[in-house]
Amino acid sequence: MIHSHYHRTALVATVVTCLGMTGLAVAQSQPATPAQSQPTTPAQTQTSGSNPPSQMSTMAPSKSDTAVSAFQKLDEAKAGYVTKEQAAKLSGFDFTQADKNKDGKLDRDEFNAAWGVYSGKPQG
Q1: Span 41-66, average pLDDT
Q2: Quick one: fold of 51-119?
């Protein structure tokens, strides 16, 4: 009698362990849900459309964009200005010339004027 009780207990323990390991394997194989993913930084926040944040942070405006659209793409943090580092995504964009008040950032007016020169589409 003691012998069969021991075997039954060992069998139950084995089954429970196998089920636990199976559950762990299933949980690890499923994609992360938004609650499990890493928090989003302000620079990664989505600004328009259905592009995921990872694409937005690397998306540089093209010369066919409007000044407003280009500004929004570069000002990912919605700070209200574009920095020299952000403008560096634009090959050939003259940040130094565009920064009329020499404060190290372009407000909307400075950016709009510079975008007209850069894109070949005068703003106004």
Answers
A1: 59
A2: Recoverin; domain 1 (1.10.238)
- 38 pLDDT exceeds 60? no
Domain ranges of the chain: 1-32, 51-119
CA angle (42, 44, 49) in 5-degree steps: 115
- Full DSSP string of 17-52: HHHHHHHHHHHHHSPPPTTTSPPPPGGG---STT--
Is the pTM higher than 0.70? The answer reads no
Q: How far apart are CA 58 and CA 29, in angstroms?
A: 28
**Chain centre distance of CA 120:** 30
Instruction: Give the pLDDT band (50/70/90) at residue 96.
Output: very high
Place of tokens 């039954």: 8
